[in-house]
Please model this.
Amino acid sequence: MKAYMGIDVGSVSTNIAVLSHAGEILADLYIRTRGRPLEAILAGLTEIAGLLPAEVEICGCGSTGSGRYLAGVMIGADVIKNEITAHAVAASIYVPDVQTVLEIGGQDSKIIIMRNGIVTDFAMNTVCAAGTGSFLDQQASRLNIPIADFGELALSSSAPVRIAGRCTVFAESDMIHKQQMGHKLTDIINGLCEALVRNYLNNVGKGKEILSPVVFQGGVAANAGIKAAFERALGLPIIIPRHFGVMGAIGAAQLAREEVEKTGQTLFKGFKIAGLPYRTGSFECGGCPNNCEIAEIYEEDRVIGRWGARCQRWDVL
Amino acid sequence: MPKVTFPRMGESYRAFRMLMNDLGNEVIIPPRPNKKTLDFGVRYSPEFACLPLKILTGTYVETCMSGAELIITSGGSGPCRAGLYGQLHKKILNSIGFPVDIIVFEAPKSHPIDFLRKVKRVNSSRLSYLAIWECVKRGWEKLKYLDDLEKTTHALRPRELKKGSTTKVYREVLEWIDGAYAMKEIHEAGKEALNTLKLVPHDTRRAVLRVGIVGEIYVLLEPASNLEIEETLGNLGVEVHRSMFLTGWTRDNTVKETSGILSVKEAAMPYIPLCIGGHGRESVGHTILYARDGFDGVIQMAPFTCIPEIVARTILTRVSREHNIPVLTFFLDEQTGKAGMSTRLEAFVDLIRRKKNAPVSDNRIIVG
Model:
């Protein structure tokens, strides 16, 4: 059976999705990157290979996410694409007439405006992580609540508590203040969800025309409290696709499929690479005053990729 | 001979070095901003200051360590902190043990006497005003060629047949300009450099996207401060048009405003009717002119915490909608990781490419 694989290497999670030729999800996977993308990619490949039926043949693969170049050279990606395009493509597979995509991941959040299936505008958080999953994660662990329960707790809130949302420092100090005053935890958590949504709409969503259908994806979409806060703030229904957590990977798989249809063959090296030794290294180039920090990746003893140079000196041919 | 230095802005140092030498000064060439520059800059500048201030602090510390005694810089106009940076830098440098002096040249059209007094101070060879004028003319000529060369790379890079070839030839021919001294030599070297650069194999018929770049002057002019965004865009197949060059800026601030800047102000009028400092009004005006000229998109570059550009950014959302031109903003600070910028640039280029290739959309207004 022909299938296409997408791999999304993000700051917090590494996701893999395999699509059949008909567009169904054959397998998907969401694992933590833990700051070690190389290991996460290898572990993910081994695991996904085990989840796939034996007759599946990968006819194309693509990578996305901030680690897309690393993943791309390792697996032999047919297409290496930025997350915005990947997320937009994935959203339109499930909701073909989608006009707005809200995506909140571990360390970035974005809004994508689409009209007639084409991205017409987008924005990503610029300098602030206040509206992202990492902050929710951090607060959940400070309160000793599993992140999975966060949304349900927010929904059970009965009284609104206002939390400052512009900056994580303000938000945290506000939360501590309110908790010490004796406000209920559920109300504080709900207040945090509202603050996060407010910050997202004012910062990332600033000046954008948000029209229905609105699709909400990324890891944070698992949080029912955030979904409810978005619905209250926008006055629009929010659609969460079934595979909301791996949409980037799905988009990459779809893009790989389109690419392979053009080129007629895949560059995918096969799941066997999960058994090869990989290592990364870095050094400072002293060739000019730029002092570029060059990072490189080795497959066995061969350099397969280098990044960080501002000139062609270290290009891998 | 007094040892002088000045801020580094792209390749302009090649012209200033000659001018300062001619006036009888030894020049300490400011190094290209690098990691050490940033380290010094961040260490000795106020935390909340903007990237240009920090880079300049770092540059000055490096040049002071090489013996610079006098720093020459320009002032700012309007309500922007940069107008005070010269004085602030002097205080910082003196307090960390460098007894340097700073001369801040303000726009001569508004401060003519002050300007001449300062010219006299850097005139270590005691040249006559006429002789100084001759030196300035040669420096100006060099600066014009440097700007023209850079503009040529913007057009060539997206069309080059071999990736990186434009940059390689550009680096070579810059040295030719450097070596020229007499007016005739400057013209010869400049023309030869331009002709050689244009010989880089390229495809003139390749359909490229055109993007205008607006924003604060320092991050626009010094590639090391903007993660070489113009080169990155060129490699993505985009012809870059930068709204500001040193020669243009100098023209507008010395004698009389050019028609170019006047039309920028006029275009910005419905949105920003007065000077808000820095280049906030110019960012808005240029964006409108780019939209009128049929550009595919505009990129705004702003130092983090820059008030004029923050104001402009807020207004650009409306300009983008009303003039139907995509705008992407980057706030620059001390980060050197390029991943975030590449992602946004790639997505932006995807967006404008699709927009360009899409059939005429149904929201077109029919005027009858």
Remarks:
- Chain B touches chain A through 39 residues (CB under 8 Å).
- The beta strands of chain B are 3-5, 26-27, 70-74, 101-105, 209-215, 238-242, 297-303, 327-332.
- DSSP finds 15 helices and eight strands in chain B.
